[in-house]
Specification:
Layout (H helix, E strand, L loop, with lengths): L8 H12 L3 E7 L7 E8 L4 E7 L6 H11 L18 E3 L2 E7 L4 E2 L7 H15 L5 H6 L8 H15 L5 H12 L1 H19 L6 E3 L8 E3 L5 E3 L6 E3 L2 H4 L13 H11 L6 H24 L5 H13 L6 H8 L5
Antiparallel strand pairs: 1-2, 2-3, 3-5, 4-5, 6-8, 7-10, 8-9
Length: 336
């Protein structure tokens, strides 16, 4: 969320005092992230300790906080786990939002700072540990499982029909429609290939592992002294390992698309038989998911004008040379 929600500093201070037992001296809104349902703040306690506060509205499940808490407790230090309240709650609900508090990590996102070889190896080691973790039975029962559902592909097809026959008075929607029309054939190809690959995978018996599900550069934080933090476990899932591995070399966010980076990552991760069909599916499906999300934001006029402008920029950037669409096409495992 790039525009601050209507939540005052006093309300933040009161909530953190009442529910987390903290005395807060300063509240700073952080205009970061592509999710219009999540707001971020840096809050500083009276003793100078900084914290990261995330407010999440709409869809929220306990696994978003329970999974990283469990993984961190297993010794995977790069996993950022939430701070519990004095009554051992991992989040609280107030107003329209779920409030989750974390330690503040002094560093930058992987979208902004290139990962060094050391960091890539550490990321690979951490994700190997995640993928080989066995969840407790109770937590495993709560986890969604990959089913290659066509929901977002249907949304994109519906938007495709709408864009082709509609005129938009809203200037941001009109610019999206013009660009969409220009890329019409390629968008249709992306959706069709995602469908084709999903159908192929549905016929296979594959091992499902614990996956982050959204392992792009914005969800990996790096510090000046080579520390690493893997954040935003909003939608963990049991899925083929390629659900996470597709991000390495996948170009999401315009980063992580260099061959050398993948070499370093697998130095830490170790040898892995990567299924080219699954890898291509997740790269195509990620584009479909983003097109659906940006379409809903822009055409549905959700979020602030600033959020919608940023969504349009990200939508268009997917089709730049060397970005996700080109990389997905290169990953396609069948003859063209």
């Amino acid at each position: 969320m790039l525009t601050r929600p209507e939540i005052t500093d006093d309300r933040v201070i009161a909530c953190l005092c009442d529910d987390f037992g903290l005395r807060i001296a300063k509240v700073t809104f952080l205009p970061i992230g592509a999710d219009v349902n999540s707001a971020a703040f840096r809050v500083t306690a009276d003793d100078g300790t900084p914290y990261f506060l995330k407010l999440r509205r709409g869809h929220f499940t306990e696994i978003a906080v329970a999974v990283p808490t469990f993984l961190h407790a297993q010794g995977i230090g790069a996993i950022m786990a939430p701070i519990a309240t004095p009554t051992n709650q991992l989040w609280v609900h107030s107003g329209d939002f779920n409030w989750i508090l974390y330690p503040y990590f002094e560093g930058r996102r992987g979208l902004e700072a290139a990962l060094s070889k050391t960091r890539w190896i550490r990321l690979g080691e951490s994700m190997k540990a995640v993928h080989t973790t066995v969840l407790p039975a109770g937590l495993a029962r709560q986890m969604p499982r990959e089913d290659y559902a066509p929901r977002c592909r249907r949304i994109v097809r519906a938007f495709h029909q709408q864009v082709c026959r509609s005129a938009y008075a809203d200037p941001i929607a009109a610019r999206l429609a013009a660009f969409w029309t220009m890329k019409s054939d390629e968008i249709e190809c992306i959706v069709e290939r995602a469908d084709q690959l999903a159908q192929a995978l549905q016929k296979r018996a594959v091992d499902l592992v614990m996956c982050h599900g959204d392992l792009h550069g914005g969800n990996v934080l790096v510090s000046a002294n080579e520390e690493l933090a893997i954040v935003d476990w909003d939608e963990p899932i049991l899925a083929p390992k390629e659900r996470d591995l597709m991000f390495v070399g996948g170009g999401v966010g315009g980063v992580w698309n260099q061959a050398q980076e993948a070499v370093w990552f697998y130095e830490g991760y170790g040898h892995a038989e990567v299924d080219p069909v699954a890898l291509a599916y997740y790269r195509y499906e990620r584009i479909v998911v983003d097109i659906a999300a940006y379409g809903e934001r822009i055409l549905g006029r959700r979020g602030s004008a600033e959020d919608r402008e940023e969504g349009l920029r990200r939508f268009m950037n997917q089709f730049l040379p060397g970005n996700v669409a080109e990389i997905a096409h290169r990953s396609y495992p069948y003859p063209v």
